[in-house]
Specification:
The chain is an alpha+beta fold. It has 14 helices and 26 strands. Strands 17, 18, 21, 22, 24, 25 and 26 form a 7-stranded mixed sheet that branches. Strands 4-1-8-7 form a 4-stranded antiparallel sheet. The chain starts with 17 loop residues before the first helix and ends in a 27-residue tail after the last helix.
Length: 600
């Protein structure tokens, strides 16, 4: 593979490059496998009989679609279902100006040997105007199609080299007159290890490869695989105009490097925006070797391979140093769940007038005398079916907001069951009964404000921190998505981002959900409060029910997609590790209502 294979946004940072760190944060998440989804099925008594496989992709001689530069390729992997529909398993990062990409982002697939698992690979040239978006936000119809290939997963894993090269063809399945290039898929079994190494590199006295300024170096680290080839596993950022660069620390999981004795290739390149990065030098070292460099505070000299076979490699003056080497354990979501950590769910339902008059058939709150469920009831049933498996006591605080309550005033957080003594309901049936009762006693009003229910949930989460570290709270807001005060909601979410709390917003009906997408912050922009404070982490996940019912996503996958990552980010930043939790012999006292006691 040529030296053009670095993925760089705006030239220098990975397009979707945060993905790699995200998948580490989520405990190896990826669309192909999700710990929270696995836990859901396991709790239902469905044990998954599969092997986790990690797919690495490279391509060669791709078609050049760009006029003034080379294509900027990204690959997408799909599983082909029995009915012929495609389920997206994951996307690589985008690599700039490169027709022979070696993508770093891996895609996880659950390999089940007893069933045929057809895979489809699509390669796209990503338009320059989208280079600042995370890859999961890219609309594929806006990108230029470079070709597709297909195979069955067992074809890859049964090969001795665990690699399969496929010819790319057009969507009609024809190769045509134009050579579209090839894609190579390499499969490796995922190592279920929690071990990781945080490592910081710097270099000194690098050779200068630029004429009018100094080199712009970055490191690429690859692992040597059994077949003798190498697979890139991560890269640093680019340090501009510097022959003595210091890079930000990297986290390497054992999943990525295999074992501490496994040889790694560390290559230092001079970045060029054309994609033709120039090799400054390379070193072969294992994790053990790198740890020794750190302990002894010595550097290792780069070498430059000779272009002629009969001449020796050149040992360079430039050296690589390891300034930081810390071994850590990255516990998974399942590690926490199986050691007594709990998810506690809370529900808030939108009673604002934008939902339509409940007596009218076209209202989202219409109670059909035939028993047919309305949009809210459907959402409560489908979402409740998933979340109740995580909540051991299956008692849910349940609120409504935006309605004129029993007392005659508009409330932005009222107890759904109308009880002064308790705001908790029992199970999904309890939420359904309290919702039906509230519709008979509450008048739809407005405006739509999420702030008070978020603050109330945050208050409960905040109180739990003082007594236990083993509870994490999830507020489920079911809404038609028409929000009156976006900034007020942002303020509440920024305040809550320090607490053990996630917010799942489920959108019902056909409204414009643009505001909900803003709160989800999947574009990489953290929420900012009106005082300029930035959220410490992303705590919002938005799920539009119309996409679930349209068959585009499963409700289980949609609801739990980001939850493991949000949970782990909270636990890891506070250095909370899984440990057996003693369960009290007696049931805890019932919580009394807190709605309305929290400053809006």
């Amino acid at each position: 593979m040529g030296a053009c294979c670095s993925d760089v946004r705006g030239g220098q940072e990975a397009v979707g490059g945060a993905q790699q760190q995200r998948s580490i944060a989520a405990g190896g998440g990826g669309a192909g496998h999700n710990d929270a989804v696995e836990f859901f099925y396991r709790t239902k008594g469905v044990e998954a009989l599969f092997t986790q496989i990690e797919l690495s992709l490279t391509a060669s001689k791709l078609l050049d679609r760009d006029i003034v530069s080379k294509s900027d390729p990204m690959a997408v992997i799909y599983a082909k279902k029995r009915d012929g529909s495609l389920e997206e398993l994951g996307r690589t990062e985008v690599i700039m100006n490169c027709l022979d990409p070696a993508w770093i982002e891996k895609i996880n697939v659950a390999y089940q040997f007893e069933i045929v698992q057809p895979l489809i690979f699509h390669v796209y040239d990503v338009d320059t105007s989208y280079h600042n978006l995370p890859v999961k936000m890219l609309k594929l119809k806006d990108q230029e199609f470079l070709g597709e290939a297909s195979c069955v997963l067992s074809e890859i894993v049964t090969k001795q080299s665990r690699s399969l090269t496929l010819k790319l063809h057009n969507k009609k399945g024809q190769a045509g007159l134009v050579n579209l290039g090839t894609i190579t898929v390499h499969a490796e079994e995922t190592i279920a290890s929690r071990n990781a190494v945080e490592i910081a590199f710097r270099c000194s006295h690098l050779d200068n490869k630029d004429l009018f300024s100094k080199s712009d170096p970055f490191l690429r680290i690859s692992r040597i695989v059994e077949s003798g080839g190498s697979v890139p596993i991560c890269k640093t950022e680019v340090v501009n105009n510097n022959l003595n660069p210091v890079w930000k620390p990297l986290t390497l999981t054992m999943q990525r490097f295999g074992s501490k004795d496994n040889p790694l290739i560390l290559e230092c390149f001079d970045f060029n925006s054309s994609g033709n990065h120039v090799l400054i030098g390379k070193i072969q070292k294992s994790i053990v070797d790198l740890e020794k460099l750190h302990k002894e505070k010595i550097g290792a000299n780069f070498i430059l391979p000779s272009s002629h076979h009969h001449t020796h490699e050149k040992v360079l003056k430039g050296q690589l140093f390891v300034d930081r080497f810390i071994e850590t354990k990255l516990y998974s979501f399942l590690d926490y769940m199986s050691s007594g950590f709990e998810l506690n769910f809370m529900v808030a339902i939108d009673f604002t007038a934008s939902n339509g008059n409940p007596h009218s058939r076209d209202s989202l709150h219409y109670i059909d005398p035939t028993g047919r469920l309305n949009a809210y009831q459907q959402a409560i049933m489908e979402v409740g079916e998933v979340i109740q498996y995580y909540d051991s006591d299956r008692r849910f605080p349940a609120w409504g907001f935006g309605g004129r309550t029993y007392e005659g005033s508009v409330s932005h957080c009222f107890d759904l069951n109308g009880s002064a003594g308790s705001f908790e309901v029992e199970g999904v049936e309890g939420i359904m009964a309290a919702y039906a009762s509230a519709l008979r006693n509450v008048t739809l009003a407005g405006p739509t404000l999420f702030g008070q229910v978020i603050n109330t949930a945050a208050d409960i989460a905040g109180h739990s921190v003082s007594s236990t570290n083993s509870k994490y709270f999830v507020l489920l807001i079911i809404t038609d998505g028409v929000l009156t005060d976006l900034q007020e909601t942002k303020n509440a979410l920024v305040r809550a981002s320090d607490l053990p709390l996630s917010v799942l917003i489920v959108g019902v009906g056909g409204a414009d959900f643009t505001q909900m997408e803003i709160l989800d912050a999947d574009n990489g922009q953290r929420l900012e409060s009106s005082t300029g404070r930035i959220a410490t982490r992303d705590i919002v996940q938005f799920v539009p029910m119309r996409e679930v019912h349209g068959g585009q996503i499963s409700i289980v996958q949609a609801l739990l997609e980001e939850l493991p990552g949000q949970f782990l980010t909270y636990m890891r930043t506070r250095e909370i590790i899984p440990q057996p939790v003693t369960v009290p012999a007696t049931a805890p006292p019932q919580r009394s209502s807190t709605c309305g006691l929290v400053d809006p």
